[in-house]
């Protein structure tokens, strides 16, 4: 029996609309969930002379709808999927939409591992499905628990959606658990959509689920992009990879009525980034910021802390005297520091803090956050 759909999103506008209403990001942007932005020059400086000339001479006509051969080959080395299994998309958000559209048919319910960033649930709903929240984390836990997903009657579900590295906590799904879930989905005829956009950012040795034996299952669809890990959100390059020919055909067909194809210059630059990813790693910076945050949390009374293992976000629990949304709005107005309120993830005494910032900016952001917490506590005592 399919349970009634649930979400953990806050009522009213979601996180992205809240960000948009707040205006341009501030300098002390602890809400950022990805790497610092790169420039075209950053990427061309890594390129061979022939690549630079190719970029300048590149045609701006339509290219192949599934992506250029070079880019799909670069994605292959990053994910373990073969180039033929990759469909290039406009960022991970389009990949999620297409994956949901591919899976949803007579079965309409998609189990979403929560807490989750709102785009996962919105993608399901945008494609006519029903997003059902299935909690896989609770405060204080140092791991994601996929057991509840495996226990569902998956024959009634179109798909299961898991984000690892996990946003907002920065935890990773255990590979053996994820493989077991993939087996369960395959037996039930449900898709397993694995969003791994932040892979290898904090943990430079992390590898894609695409290298797992379970990724060979035709149930699995892998989602990734060059936004979070490489700071290249403006390129709008992502992908969905699957071994299932029917799924790839469906993905390509749906894409004919969404974006049709990516720009050739963006794909060229994304391929350069993936081919030179060791030069673009942010893990050393992120781990330095994590060490500072860990020490900072140790000095906070009433705090709870689960240290992230990969990705560029952390989800500290704090003794907030007001709602996380009210606190975040005061923090932005009075201190020009941005954080993501935990209420948007269903955990109102938490804040999502980004680790992908220059260490001096991160340190100043924490100092201002501490000051704002002190002010809030004093106000609550009056």
Tell me what the structure shows.
- This protein is of the alpha/beta class.
- The protein has two domains: 125 residues, Aspartate Aminotransferase, domain 1 (Alpha-Beta Complex), CATH 3.90.1150; 221 residues, Type I PLP-dependent aspartate aminotransferase-like (Major domain) (Aspartate Aminotransferase, domain 2), CATH 3.40.640.
- The chain has 13 helices and twelve strands.
- The strands form three sheets. The protein has a seven-stranded mixed sheet, sandwiched between helices. A three-stranded antiparallel sheet has the order 9-12-11.
- Helix 5 packs across helix 6.
- It starts with 14 loop residues before the first helix and ends with a helix.
Oligomeric state of shown chains = single chain
The largest sheet is: 7 strands, mixed
Percentage of residues in helical conformation? 25-40%
- SSE run: HEHHHEHEHEHEHEEEHHHEHEEEH
How many distinct folded domains?
2
CATH topology of the largest domain, by name, is: Aspartate Aminotransferase, domain 2
Query: So, CATH architecture of the largest domain?
Result: 3-Layer(aba) Sandwich
How many H/I helical runs? 13
The neighbouring-strand order within the major sheet is: 2-8-7-6-5-3-4
The termini sit apart by 51 Å
Instruction: Report Rg.
Output: 21 Å
Tell me the CATH superfamily of the largest domain.
Type I PLP-dependent aspartate aminotransferase-like (Major domain)
**What CATH first level of the largest domain would be assigned?**
Alpha Beta
Percentage beta strand: 5-15%
> What would you call the structural class?
alpha/beta
What integer is the average pLDDT?
Answer: 93
Ranges where pLDDT stays below 50 over 5 or more residues in a row are 1-11
Q: What would the principal axes of the Cα set say about the shape?
A: globular
Give the tally of β-strands.
Answer: 12
